[in-house]
Structure formats: structure tokens, C-alpha cells
3-phosphoshikimate 1-carboxyvinyltransferase (Pseudorhodobacter turbinis), 447 residues
Amino acid sequence: MSGHGPAQVMTATKSGPLIGRAEVPGDKSISHRALIFGAMAVGETRITGLLEGQDVLDTASAMRAFGAEVTQHGQGAWSVHGVGVGGFREPTGVIDFGNSGTGVRLIMGAMATTAMTATFTGDASLRKRPMGRVTDPLALFGTQAYGRRGGRLPMTLVGAANPVPVRYTTPMPSAQVKSAVLLAGLNAPGQTVVIEREATRDHSERMLVGFGAELVVEQTDEGNVITLTGQPDLRPQVVAVPRDPSSAAFPVCAALIVEGSDIFVPGVSQNLTRNGVYLTLVEMGADITFENPREEGGEPVADLRVKFSEMTGIEVPPERAPSMIDEYPVLAVVAANATGRTVMRGIKELRVKESDRIDAMARGLEACGVMVEEDEDTLIVHGRGPGSMPGGATCATHLDHRIAMSFLVAGMASVAPISIDDASPIATSFPLFEGLMTGLGATLTKA
Ligand SMILES: O=C(O)C1=C[C@@H](OP(=O)(O)O)[C@@H](O)[C@H](O)C1
Ligand SMILES: C=C(OP(=O)(O)O)C(=O)O
């Protein structure tokens, strides 16, 4: 959906202790993939714990447009009747991915090696984001792409009628690019190889194996070498989506900076390609205990107990960036409430997310009285100490759910309230954010 609702101003006021249980929604990356892989299997895939955020709902609509039958049975309970690898039907209209980079990039890959034409668009944020990073490797399979200047949406892809397998080294750490190439490789004969120098989230690899694809990952001096054998018969699966560690970071960081807080966040994925923010918070002095570690839905999960903590700024190791790429905005808020400097390097990918997240965080934090430094690839936040961020500003969110949630978390611990100009994008990834946070004791008001 391109249209968000009307802009919704929201204000967070300094909160008393956050106390209680925070059940965060299903993982967004796994939810997209469950629908897409389910659509490419033959038979019925059953999903529980699906994230019902707008981004994932847009992927469900897209899979219907390509011919799969996608049905909701109850909260988080969905089924997908897939059409098999190469079985997509040509969509009759333009496919609108709203705010979702993952949805559009993965599905471009999924249709790229089937003889059909499809046209993609998105909201004002998605139409600014680069698609060349996906259409360049897809061209190697024989796929043609016609978009706006700079490889922007709206864009039409003509799938390769006689695809050839591809060997591709991703030029930037991106699970979306890696996954698009693997999805295209599904319908190419022979072996498609993707090499990534830095490991990114590995949900596609894990889930493709689960769906019955022949896929091997080797760790070499070049990085991870992923070899997929094309044209498998994917088998439908039962997928239990674990809770999203990126969404969990918001209540976790809020509890860490609001004095007296003590919360419990059950069943959060601790996949090593996703848990960088938790390692970083612990290094800063966060009181987080990881209880009852176990496996759920093929992913390592733990229950998190989180208490208010006095924290110290650190240098975040740049090689950790891919495992916490979506968590830098809220980490910057924690950094502002820590003592000393927090240095975040190697993060230029943040500039091509739903907004330029380095710029959005730097401008918003400055408006709230926090000193920051930035360059193309870096954000440095000078901490004010616990509960000492002045606040008292309205921060621009640029159609970016993570910027919106980050500044609301900031306002829960700042001296004066913090407003955001638009809370509506939060529904893309965390529709129940407001209720969950107010349930813990936060004060959020709509204008
Ligand atoms: O593959 C995925 O599910 C995602 C990959 C990441 O994007 P990039 O591939 O652009 O790094 C991440 O930021 C996004 O939220 C989800
Ligand atoms: C970058 C994100 O998502 P996407 O690329 O799917 O829009 C995100 O959720 O932070």
C-alpha cells in the first residue's frame, strides 16, 4: 500500500518505571520469507506467529497477485497454497510494496527467472531507495529491468525466459541482495553461487534448506560461499515464526534508560546474525539476562529480563554492523543516555533505509540537546548520562518506523517531552507498539 494513514503526531513524556511482560511480534524477515517460500512450494505451508505488520501484509498481497492462495485463519495463523518454483502467474496490475524494501527486493528475485513481466512500486520512501543493487545481479540471469533514473521504483522487470545460473559476490553486506539472487537461482538450472564477504542475516539459507532446497554454505577466506542447486521441488512447511529481536530492541532499550524499570521479554530470537545490539548493550553495562535459551521454529531463542542500567559509551565494532543494522537508531538513543561517547562506524548502509537514518538520528538528537558527530559512514553520540537528555523537540521521522519508535523511546527518559511528526509508519513492523509500551507504563499521547 502506498498510502499511509494521515500523519499522526505522537508525544512521549518522561515515564515512571516500565514494569511487566513485553510480548513483541513475529520476526519481520522470517515472516516475509515464510510467505514467499510457501508460495514457491507445492502444497500448503502453515504459519504461526506471522507478523501482521503492513510490510508483511503487502508481501501476502503480492504472493496472491503471483497466483498463490494466501489465507489468514486467526491472529498470526496463516496458510499459503504454493504454486511451485517457476509456477508464478503474471500479475495483472502494478504491485505496490508500500514501505517495504525486503518485500520488493525479494519478490523481484523470486519472479526474475520466470517468463513474465511485472511492475513494482511503493510509497514515497520506497520510491527513493536503490533497486539497482538487486536488478544488477538479476541481469546476469537474463532479467531486464526498466525503472526510473538511478534504479528507482516504479520499475518493470521482464523475467528471463531461459535463465542461466549465476556466481555473484555481493558488493555490500545485504541479506536482501543475497536473498534476491538465491530466489532467482531457484528457477535457474544448475548451481547459483552467492559469496558474501561479511555474514548477513541467514534466514533465507536456513529456511530454504527447511523447504527442501539443496543449499550448502562454506566459510572460506573470501567469506561465506552459498551454493544453491536450481529447480528443486520445494516442500511445504509448518513455520513457527519466533519473536523479532529488532522489535524487541525498543522495549529493551526503553527499560534500560527509564529509571526503576524491570521488564521480561519472552522468546526473542538470538540468531547470531541478528543479536549484535544485545552484545553491544551488555558491553555498555546493560543489565540483561538471557534466560531459558532454547530452540523454537529452528531459531535459537531466549527470554530476556531487562533492568534499568547506568551505561557507558563504547566503540561499536564495525564488523558487528550487519548483525544489528536496524538497531542503530535506538542504540543512538541509549548512547545519549549513557556516559561518554558511543562511536558507531561502518554504518553507511543506514543512509539507504526507509530514511537516511544517520541524518535522521543526528538531526533529531541535536534538536533534543544531544551533541553528535557524523560522516558518510559514522555516527558519534556524546552521552548526557542517565535521564539527562533535554528533549523538548518535535523530531522528523521521514516515513521511517524505526526513527519514529526510537524518538518515542527517547522521550520516555528525557527531561522535557519529545514528539514525532508521524507515528503512522510504526504499523509497518510493530502495529501494537503503542499498546505494548503503555501497558508497561509509558505515557504516549496523540495530538
Ligand atoms: O533481508 C531482510 O529481511 C532484511 C535485510 C536488511 O536489509 P539490507 O539487506 O538492505 O541490509 C534489513 O535492514 C531489513 O530490515 C531486513
Ligand atoms: C530496513 C528495514 O526494512 P526494509 O528494508 O524491509 O524496508 C527495517 O525494517 O528497518
